[in-house]
Amino acid sequence: xxxxxxxxxxxxxxxxxxxxxxxxxxxxxxxxxxxxxxxxxxxxxxxxxxxxxxxxxxxxxxxxxxxxxxxxxxxxxxxxxxxxxxxxxxxxxxxxxxxxxxxxxxxxxxxxxxxxxxxxxxxxxxxxxxxxxxxxxxxxxxxxxxxxxxxxxxxxxxxxxxxxxxxxxxxxxxxxxxxxxxxxxxxxxxxxxxxxxxxxxxxxxxxxxxxxxxxxxxxxxxxxxxxxxxxxxxxxxxxxxxxxxxxxxxxxxxxxxxxxxxxxxxxxxxxxxxxxxxxxxxxxxxxxxxxxxxxxxxxxxxxxxxxxxxxxxxxxxxxxxxxxxxxxxxxxxxx
Length: 335
Ligand SMILES: Nc1ncnc2c1ncn2[C@@H]1O[C@H](COP(=O)(O)OP(=O)(O)OP(=O)(O)O)[C@@H](O)[C@H]1O
Ligand SMILES: [Mg+2]
What we know:
The protein is of the alpha+beta class.
Protein backbone atom coordinates (compact mmCIF):
# COMPACT_ATOMS: atom_id res chain seq x y z
CA UNK A 1 0.00 0.00 0.00
CA UNK A 2 1.45 3.43 -0.85
CA UNK A 3 2.25 5.70 2.09
CA UNK A 4 0.30 8.96 2.21
CA UNK A 5 2.31 10.29 5.12
CA UNK A 6 4.17 13.47 4.26
CA UNK A 7 7.74 13.66 5.57
CA UNK A 8 8.80 17.22 6.28
CA UNK A 9 12.03 18.84 7.43
CA UNK A 10 11.45 22.02 9.43
CA UNK A 11 14.25 24.48 10.13
CA UNK A 12 12.66 26.28 13.05
CA UNK A 13 15.00 29.25 13.27
CA UNK A 14 15.00 32.34 15.45
CA UNK A 15 14.50 34.54 12.39
CA UNK A 16 13.15 32.22 9.67
CA UNK A 17 11.16 29.03 9.37
CA UNK A 18 11.84 26.87 6.33
CA UNK A 19 9.96 23.68 5.42
CA UNK A 20 11.30 21.17 2.95
CA UNK A 21 10.04 17.89 1.57
CA UNK A 22 12.98 15.99 0.16
CA UNK A 23 14.95 18.82 -1.45
CA UNK A 24 11.89 20.86 -2.38
CA UNK A 25 11.30 24.02 -0.36
CA UNK A 26 7.61 24.36 0.46
CA UNK A 27 7.71 27.36 2.78
CA UNK A 28 10.22 30.05 3.74
CA UNK A 29 8.83 32.74 6.06
CA UNK A 30 10.07 34.87 8.95
CA UNK A 31 9.46 33.25 12.37
CA UNK A 32 7.45 36.33 13.30
CA UNK A 33 4.02 36.58 14.86
CA UNK A 34 1.63 39.43 15.62
CA UNK A 35 -0.27 38.74 18.82
CA UNK A 36 -3.36 40.43 20.26
CA UNK A 37 -2.15 41.03 23.81
CA UNK A 38 -5.56 40.92 25.62
CA UNK A 39 -6.42 37.47 24.36
CA UNK A 40 -2.85 36.26 23.71
CA UNK A 41 -4.08 35.29 20.27
CA UNK A 42 -1.99 35.16 17.09
CA UNK A 43 -3.52 37.44 14.45
CA UNK A 44 -0.79 37.28 11.81
CA UNK A 45 2.40 35.32 11.15
CA UNK A 46 5.35 35.10 8.77
CA UNK A 47 6.27 37.93 6.41
CA UNK A 48 2.90 39.65 6.98
CA UNK A 49 3.65 39.80 10.72
CA UNK A 50 7.24 40.97 10.21
CA UNK A 51 5.98 43.76 7.92
CA UNK A 52 3.86 45.01 10.84
CA UNK A 53 6.94 45.60 13.04
CA UNK A 54 6.83 49.09 14.53
CA UNK A 55 3.52 49.88 12.79
CA UNK A 56 0.92 48.35 15.11
CA UNK A 57 -1.36 49.82 17.81
CA UNK A 58 -0.51 49.13 21.46
CA UNK A 59 -2.81 46.14 21.80
CA UNK A 60 -0.79 44.16 19.27
CA UNK A 61 2.79 43.01 19.70
CA UNK A 62 5.00 41.70 16.92
CA UNK A 63 7.76 39.35 18.06
CA UNK A 64 9.63 36.14 17.37
CA UNK A 65 8.47 33.28 19.63
CA UNK A 66 11.95 31.71 19.48
CA UNK A 67 14.95 33.35 21.08
CA UNK A 68 18.45 32.11 20.33
CA UNK A 69 16.98 29.05 18.63
CA UNK A 70 14.93 27.88 21.62
CA UNK A 71 11.23 28.27 22.29
CA UNK A 72 10.53 31.35 24.38
CA UNK A 73 6.72 31.39 23.93
CA UNK A 74 5.51 27.81 23.86
CA UNK A 75 1.81 28.29 23.06
CA UNK A 76 2.50 30.74 20.24
CA UNK A 77 5.23 28.51 18.74
CA UNK A 78 2.88 25.52 18.71
CA UNK A 79 0.23 27.66 17.05
CA UNK A 80 2.70 28.97 14.49
CA UNK A 81 3.82 25.41 13.69
CA UNK A 82 0.18 24.43 13.23
CA UNK A 83 -0.30 27.24 10.69
CA UNK A 84 2.86 26.54 8.71
CA UNK A 85 2.17 22.80 8.56
CA UNK A 86 -1.43 23.34 7.44
CA UNK A 87 -0.19 25.79 4.83
CA UNK A 88 2.00 23.13 3.23
CA UNK A 89 -0.10 19.99 3.70
CA UNK A 90 -3.57 21.57 3.42
CA UNK A 91 -6.26 22.05 6.07
CA UNK A 92 -7.27 18.37 6.34
CA UNK A 93 -4.66 16.57 8.40
CA UNK A 94 -6.01 13.17 7.41
CA UNK A 95 -2.54 11.67 7.23
CA UNK A 96 -0.57 13.44 9.89
CA UNK A 97 2.95 14.34 8.73
CA UNK A 98 6.20 13.01 10.10
CA UNK A 99 8.55 15.82 11.08
CA UNK A 100 12.26 16.36 11.56
CA UNK A 101 12.70 19.69 13.37
CA UNK A 102 16.05 21.42 13.88
CA UNK A 103 17.35 22.54 17.27
CA UNK A 104 20.62 24.30 18.13
CA UNK A 105 23.57 22.14 19.19
CA UNK A 106 23.84 21.77 22.93
CA UNK A 107 20.38 22.84 24.07
CA UNK A 108 18.95 21.23 27.22
CA UNK A 109 16.71 18.18 27.22
CA UNK A 110 13.87 20.34 28.57
CA UNK A 111 14.25 22.73 25.63
CA UNK A 112 14.34 19.75 23.22
CA UNK A 113 11.19 18.29 24.75
CA UNK A 114 9.37 21.58 24.26
CA UNK A 115 10.13 21.48 20.51
CA UNK A 116 9.10 17.82 20.34
CA UNK A 117 5.80 18.49 22.08
CA UNK A 118 5.10 21.58 20.01
CA UNK A 119 5.53 19.43 16.87
CA UNK A 120 3.11 16.81 18.18
CA UNK A 121 0.68 19.48 19.39
CA UNK A 122 0.75 21.06 15.93
CA UNK A 123 -0.70 17.85 14.48
CA UNK A 124 2.26 15.67 13.62
CA UNK A 125 2.29 11.92 13.96
CA UNK A 126 5.94 11.49 14.76
CA UNK A 127 8.54 14.13 15.58
CA UNK A 128 12.32 13.78 15.47
CA UNK A 129 14.86 16.46 16.32
CA UNK A 130 18.21 17.16 14.69
CA UNK A 131 21.03 19.57 15.52
CA UNK A 132 21.04 22.35 12.91
CA UNK A 133 24.70 21.97 11.76
CA UNK A 134 24.23 18.22 11.29
CA UNK A 135 21.10 18.86 9.20
CA UNK A 136 23.03 21.47 7.21
CA UNK A 137 25.85 18.98 6.57
CA UNK A 138 23.32 16.48 5.18
CA UNK A 139 21.64 19.25 3.15
CA UNK A 140 24.87 20.22 1.42
CA UNK A 141 25.82 16.58 0.83
CA UNK A 142 28.97 16.58 2.96
CA UNK A 143 30.39 13.06 3.27
CA UNK A 144 29.71 12.65 6.99
CA UNK A 145 29.64 8.82 6.96
CA UNK A 146 33.41 8.08 6.61
CA UNK A 147 35.85 8.68 9.49
CA UNK A 148 36.85 12.03 7.99
CA UNK A 149 36.32 15.41 9.64
CA UNK A 150 33.83 17.91 8.21
CA UNK A 151 33.24 21.32 9.74
CA UNK A 152 30.15 23.47 9.33
CA UNK A 153 29.65 27.03 10.60
CA UNK A 154 26.01 28.17 10.78
CA UNK A 155 25.48 31.90 11.22
CA UNK A 156 21.81 32.43 12.07
CA UNK A 157 19.64 35.19 13.47
CA UNK A 158 19.91 34.21 17.12
CA UNK A 159 22.72 31.67 17.21
CA UNK A 160 26.14 31.03 15.76
CA UNK A 161 26.85 27.31 15.68
CA UNK A 162 29.94 25.32 14.78
CA UNK A 163 30.18 21.54 14.56
CA UNK A 164 32.69 18.96 13.44
CA UNK A 165 31.14 15.77 12.11
CA UNK A 166 32.46 12.33 11.19
CA UNK A 167 31.01 8.81 11.08
CA UNK A 168 27.45 10.16 11.05
CA UNK A 169 27.96 11.83 14.39
CA UNK A 170 28.93 15.14 15.95
CA UNK A 171 32.47 14.97 17.31
CA UNK A 172 32.74 18.49 18.74
CA UNK A 173 30.43 21.49 18.66
CA UNK A 174 29.73 24.88 20.11
CA UNK A 175 26.86 27.36 20.09
CA UNK A 176 26.92 31.06 20.90
CA UNK A 177 23.68 32.88 21.70
CA UNK A 178 24.50 35.63 19.27
CA UNK A 179 24.03 36.15 15.53
CA UNK A 180 22.32 38.44 13.02
CA UNK A 181 19.95 40.10 15.49
CA UNK A 182 22.90 41.11 17.67
CA UNK A 183 24.66 42.44 14.54
CA UNK A 184 21.62 44.63 13.82
CA UNK A 185 21.80 45.99 17.38
CA UNK A 186 25.54 46.67 16.97
CA UNK A 187 24.79 48.66 13.79
CA UNK A 188 22.14 50.70 15.67
CA UNK A 189 24.61 51.45 18.49
CA UNK A 190 27.40 52.38 16.09
CA UNK A 191 25.25 54.75 14.02
CA UNK A 192 23.91 56.41 17.18
CA UNK A 193 27.42 56.96 18.54
CA UNK A 194 28.98 58.04 15.25
CA UNK A 195 26.19 60.18 13.76
CA UNK A 196 23.84 60.83 16.70
CA UNK A 197 20.96 59.22 14.82
CA UNK A 198 18.77 56.43 16.13
CA UNK A 199 17.63 53.94 13.49
CA UNK A 200 15.14 51.07 13.89
CA UNK A 201 15.97 47.37 14.06
CA UNK A 202 14.31 46.81 10.68
CA UNK A 203 16.39 49.60 9.09
CA UNK A 204 19.58 48.23 10.65
CA UNK A 205 18.90 44.82 9.10
CA UNK A 206 18.28 46.39 5.67
CA UNK A 207 21.56 48.35 5.97
CA UNK A 208 23.43 45.16 6.89
CA UNK A 209 21.99 43.28 3.91
CA UNK A 210 22.34 46.07 1.30
CA UNK A 211 25.66 47.72 2.11
CA UNK A 212 27.09 45.54 4.89
CA UNK A 213 30.37 43.68 4.73
CA UNK A 214 32.76 41.81 6.98
CA UNK A 215 35.93 43.30 5.51
CA UNK A 216 36.91 46.68 4.03
CA UNK A 217 38.27 45.02 0.87
CA UNK A 218 34.91 44.89 -0.91
CA UNK A 219 33.22 47.48 -3.14
CA UNK A 220 32.07 50.26 -0.90
CA UNK A 221 28.34 50.94 -1.09
CA UNK A 222 26.26 53.66 0.51
CA UNK A 223 22.64 54.17 1.39
CA UNK A 224 20.63 56.95 2.97
CA UNK A 225 18.36 55.96 5.84
CA UNK A 226 15.81 57.73 7.98
CA UNK A 227 16.15 57.84 11.73
CA UNK A 228 15.59 60.09 14.71
CA UNK A 229 18.02 62.70 15.96
CA UNK A 230 19.31 61.52 19.32
CA UNK A 231 19.18 65.02 20.85
CA UNK A 232 16.16 66.73 19.29
CA UNK A 233 14.06 63.61 18.65
CA UNK A 234 13.24 65.00 15.21
CA UNK A 235 13.41 62.95 11.99
CA UNK A 236 16.90 62.89 10.59
CA UNK A 237 18.53 61.15 7.64
CA UNK A 238 22.02 59.75 7.52
CA UNK A 239 24.22 58.28 4.80
CA UNK A 240 25.64 54.93 5.87
CA UNK A 241 28.55 53.28 4.07
CA UNK A 242 29.97 49.76 3.97
CA UNK A 243 32.87 51.01 6.11
CA UNK A 244 30.45 51.99 8.88
CA UNK A 245 28.97 48.48 8.91
CA UNK A 246 32.39 46.80 8.85
CA UNK A 247 33.38 48.87 11.89
CA UNK A 248 30.11 48.06 13.68
CA UNK A 249 30.41 44.31 13.14
CA UNK A 250 34.03 43.70 14.16
CA UNK A 251 33.27 42.58 17.74
CA UNK A 252 30.59 40.18 16.61
CA UNK A 253 32.82 38.74 13.87
CA UNK A 254 35.63 38.25 16.38
CA UNK A 255 33.20 36.33 18.60
CA UNK A 256 32.60 33.89 15.73
CA UNK A 257 36.35 33.30 15.43
CA UNK A 258 36.62 32.68 19.19
CA UNK A 259 33.75 30.18 18.98
CA UNK A 260 35.39 28.27 16.11
CA UNK A 261 38.73 28.19 17.95
CA UNK A 262 36.99 26.79 21.02
CA UNK A 263 35.49 23.97 18.94
CA UNK A 264 38.84 23.27 17.26
CA UNK A 265 40.44 22.90 20.71
CA UNK A 266 38.00 20.07 21.44
CA UNK A 267 38.62 18.38 18.06
CA UNK A 268 41.09 15.49 17.60
CA UNK A 269 44.16 16.54 15.51
CA UNK A 270 43.48 13.98 12.73
CA UNK A 271 40.10 15.54 12.10
CA UNK A 272 41.59 19.04 12.16
CA UNK A 273 43.95 18.09 9.37
CA UNK A 274 40.96 16.79 7.34
CA UNK A 275 39.24 20.15 7.89
CA UNK A 276 42.37 22.03 6.78
CA UNK A 277 42.30 20.01 3.54
CA UNK A 278 38.58 20.16 2.87
CA UNK A 279 37.75 23.63 4.19
CA UNK A 280 34.84 24.82 6.31
CA UNK A 281 31.29 25.08 4.91
CA UNK A 282 29.44 28.30 5.76
CA UNK A 283 25.66 28.24 5.97
CA UNK A 284 22.82 30.28 7.49
CA UNK A 285 21.56 33.71 6.50
CA UNK A 286 24.50 35.49 8.15
CA UNK A 287 26.96 33.99 5.68
CA UNK A 288 25.40 36.22 3.01
CA UNK A 289 27.25 39.15 4.57
CA UNK A 290 29.71 40.22 1.88
CA UNK A 291 33.27 39.08 2.51
CA UNK A 292 32.47 36.84 5.48
CA UNK A 293 34.17 33.88 3.77
CA UNK A 294 37.27 35.97 3.16
CA UNK A 295 37.25 37.23 6.76
CA UNK A 296 36.97 33.75 8.29
CA UNK A 297 39.54 32.23 5.93
CA UNK A 298 42.04 34.89 6.99
CA UNK A 299 41.30 34.84 10.71
CA UNK A 300 41.08 31.05 11.07
CA UNK A 301 43.79 30.06 8.62
CA UNK A 302 41.37 27.46 7.22
CA UNK A 303 39.66 27.91 3.84
CA UNK A 304 36.02 28.86 4.47
CA UNK A 305 33.61 28.55 1.56
CA UNK A 306 30.01 29.60 0.94
CA UNK A 307 27.49 26.90 0.12
CA UNK A 308 25.01 27.25 -2.76
CA UNK A 309 21.89 27.10 -0.61
CA UNK A 310 22.86 28.75 2.71
CA UNK A 311 19.34 29.55 3.93
CA UNK A 312 17.61 26.34 2.84
CA UNK A 313 20.20 23.57 3.28
CA UNK A 314 19.29 23.02 6.94
CA UNK A 315 15.62 22.35 6.18
CA UNK A 316 16.55 20.23 3.15
CA UNK A 317 19.00 18.21 5.25
CA UNK A 318 16.40 17.78 8.01
CA UNK A 319 13.96 16.34 5.46
CA UNK A 320 16.62 14.05 3.97
CA UNK A 321 17.58 12.89 7.48
CA UNK A 322 14.16 11.28 7.88
CA UNK A 323 15.31 8.72 5.33
CA UNK A 324 18.60 8.16 7.23
CA UNK A 325 17.23 7.48 10.71
CA UNK A 326 18.97 4.12 10.93
CA UNK A 327 22.43 5.69 10.57
CA UNK A 328 21.75 9.01 12.31
CA UNK A 329 19.67 7.86 15.26
CA UNK A 330 22.61 7.77 17.68
CA UNK A 331 23.57 11.36 16.85
CA UNK A 332 20.11 12.86 17.28
CA UNK A 333 19.10 14.49 20.58
CA UNK A 334 16.91 12.14 22.65
CA UNK A 335 13.38 13.30 23.51
N1 LIG B 1 22.86 39.63 2.95
C1 LIG B 1 22.92 39.45 4.26
N2 LIG B 1 23.95 39.96 4.98
C2 LIG B 1 24.05 39.78 6.29
N3 LIG B 1 23.13 39.13 7.05
C3 LIG B 1 22.08 38.61 6.39
C4 LIG B 1 21.92 38.73 4.98
N4 LIG B 1 20.77 38.10 4.63
C5 LIG B 1 20.24 37.61 5.77
N5 LIG B 1 21.01 37.90 6.83
C6 LIG B 1 20.77 37.62 8.25
O1 LIG B 1 20.63 36.24 8.46
C7 LIG B 1 19.87 36.05 9.66
C8 LIG B 1 18.85 34.96 9.43
O2 LIG B 1 19.51 33.79 9.08
P1 LIG B 1 18.80 32.40 9.23
O3 LIG B 1 17.49 32.42 8.54
O4 LIG B 1 19.79 31.37 8.83
O5 LIG B 1 18.57 32.38 10.81
P2 LIG B 1 17.67 31.40 11.66
O6 LIG B 1 17.91 30.01 11.21
O7 LIG B 1 16.26 31.86 11.66
O8 LIG B 1 18.26 31.64 13.13
P3 LIG B 1 18.98 30.63 14.14
O9 LIG B 1 19.59 29.54 13.33
O10 LIG B 1 19.99 31.46 14.84
O11 LIG B 1 17.92 30.17 15.07
C9 LIG B 1 19.19 37.38 9.97
O12 LIG B 1 19.79 37.97 11.10
C10 LIG B 1 19.45 38.19 8.72
O13 LIG B 1 19.56 39.56 9.01
MG1 LIG C 1 19.24 28.52 11.67
